[in-house]
# Entry
Amino acid sequence: MRAAKKPSNQELRTRKDLLQAAGRLMKQGRKPTLEEVAKEALVSRATAYRHFGNVDAVLAEAPVDEAVGDLTAIFAGNDSDDAEVRIDEAEAAMHRVTYASEAQLRLMLAHSIARVADDGSPPKRQNRRTPLIEAALATTRQRFRKSDYHNLCAALAMIFGTESMIVARDVICIDEPTARRVKSWAVRALVRAALEDAPRGKRRWGRE
# Structure
């Protein structure tokens, strides 16, 4: 099976606009239609249906989107260059939001995995974890080889967020505090390993 096409920034912005529009309409105390969400977001009905197959999908995710907000704000004014600490802080922030929104996230996940994979389709999930990971590594990015940095971001994305919570709860059956300790150990170990692989005393960003 071919890898899914990476969504464009415009596709992600459109999806975000639809989620925010749904959130505004839900605050009116009623269940909007997908057509109403599209109108509120200033996009066509067809565009809304490309991003969300039905109104229940967008309504399941909208509260999560609002609850998560902009987690990158935790690094505003923080110029620390301790990559391990910053990544651990980032994971802790997402961990808190994930467990606080567990029921809604499970519903959102059910809608997203029910969609048929299609390379030409818009994003099936809003990528909230990658911007957070990149914000955490912003002050130390130049210390990694370019390939190591991208591998690290991808590996960390597998630990952040909903899926790791599902594994902790349903597969290995550990409680929330234990899951947080395990993930803290894992994200720190990944950062440490990537830093140890970097050439000593050289800035190698953009070179291999």
Notes: The two ends are 29 Å apart (CA to CA).
